[in-house]
Design a protein that fits this description.
The longest helix is centred in the first third of the chain and has 22 residues, at about 95-115. The N and C termini lie far apart (about 55 Å). With about 375 residues, this protein is α/β, with parallel strands linked by helices. A hairpin with a 4-residue loop joins β4 and β5 (about 145-150). The protein is elongated, with a radius of gyration of 26 Å. The strands form two sheets. A six-stranded mixed β-sheet has the order 3-2-1-9-10-11, sandwiched between helices. The chain has a five-stranded mixed β-sheet with strand order 4-5-8-6-7. The chain is built from eleven helices and eleven strands. Mean pLDDT is about 80; it is low at about 1-5 and about 300. α5 crosses α6 (about 200-220).
Length: about 375
């Protein structure tokens, strides 16, 4: 017996299938990453390239980190047939309708891109925001993704003490109040000492000093889950300890503020949203455009935690988000400052996608 496959029913207005399982392309953009003008243009071209789909077989969805965390995903639909293309076959004679629908499709893509792709704005924002902390005894530096505040011992602690002096408490309280009004940062507090005295005592003192600073920050209204604390003792010297002036430089507390870049959480949410919207029988292609840096306080994958520890943890175990028919194309945005080495970031994501059985179709830098 010869079985004839039934041809898909086609929407006469657009040329898109109404009965055949549709493949799905989800374009996921990390909108927490500052971009250059060149990178912004490149991303728009990537969106257009991946949206030039076979009309009757594919549908397009768009989301970003901020969109996904707000449970937002935008369906653009499938691209109308090109009435001037070589494969046009008169499902409809109304070329004007097809032209209009193709233009609406491209307009929707570009409108979404304009709303979700920023050029350098976050770096400027960080610099402006950090300027309020520049005062005597405090050094403030910014990159395009982080603010680092270094407090010398002249404005923080008396010798051998883990109790903040009055000036130090004032400065930390001011920082804590500002952070409580702008709950967008993860806060990392690290204490340091010079190399005078017993190393184990210096290590303990650095931890106690970091804890004192973090305690004041949290008391001003910051969620303790967003604050990490560490002591380095005399292990991270910035001066040679040759004289008292150098030793004073080494006796410091460093506070690093990084945007809460909830990349894994957003990706998890995007997959869940997509699972509810896509046709289960079709192929799913993910286009992920990001610098891949992940500094959420929930996932310490770029800290001391190894991959095996992370994936075995309660946080790692919750990431069950991979359909069997999923592949991903990675476009990694190069940025001036990386959370840690590029190799560590790549190693994490390769292990992550391998553990989730996600096939990496392409992987390139932009």
């Amino acid at each position: 017996m010869i079985m004839l496959s039934k041809k898909p029913e086609i929407d006469l207005a657009s040329g898109c299938s109404t009965t055949q399982p549709l493949d799905t392309t989800l374009i996921f953009i990390d909108d927490t990453t500052p971009l250059t003008e060149t990178q912004s243009l490149r991303i728009r071209n990537i969106i257009l390239d991946h949206s030039a789909v076979t009309p009757e077989r594919q549908q397009i969805f768009l989301t970003s980190v901020q969109n996904a965390l707000s449970n937002q995903i935008q369906e653009i639909g499938c691209l109308a047939r090109d009435p001037n293309g070589p494969n046009f076959n008169n499902f409809t004679e109304n070329r004007d309708i097809l032209q209009d629908q193709r233009q609406e499709f491209e307009n929707a893509l570009m409108e979404w891109s304009d709303e979700n792709i920023s050029v350098g704005s976050y770096a400027d924002y960080l610099a402006d925001w950090a300027a309020q902390f520049t005062e005597a005894g405090v050094a403030v530096t910014t990159t395009d993704t982080e603010v680092r505040i270094i407090l010398s011992d002249t404005v923080t602690f008396d010798t051998g003490s883990d109790r903040l002096n009055m000036e130090g408490a004032r400065i930390i309280e001011k920082l804590g109040r500002s952070l409580s009004e702008n709950d967008q940062f993860s806060v990392n507090v690290v204490g340091h000492t010079d190399n005078v005295g017993d190393p184990s005592r210096n290590q303990y003192l650095s931890e106690r000093r970091a804890t004192s600073v973090a305690g004041i920050i949290i008391s001003e209204g910051i969620d303790a889950a967003n604050v990490t604390i560490a002591g380095r003792g005399d292990a991270a010297q910035i001066a040679p300890n040759a004289n008292e002036a150098d030793r004073r430089l080494n006796r410091r507390v460093e506070i690093t503020l990084a945007p809460k870049r909830l990349l894994l959480e957003a990706l998890d949410r995007a997959f869940a949203l997509l699972d509810n919207l896509s046709n289960g029988d079709g192929r799913i292609d993910i286009v992920m455009i990001s610098d891949m840096a992940q500094s959420s306080p929930i996932f310490s994958v770029y800290g001391s935690q190894s991959w095996s520890e992370f994936i075995a943890s309660s946080e790692g175990a919750t990431l069950n988000l991979t359909p069997e028919n999923l592949s991903i194309s990675l476009y990694r945005i190069l940025r001036q400052d990386t959370v840690t080495s590029k190799l560590v970031i790549l190693d994490f994501w390769r292990n992550y996608f391998k553990a989730k059985a996600v096939r990496i179709a392409t992987d390139q830098e932009i």
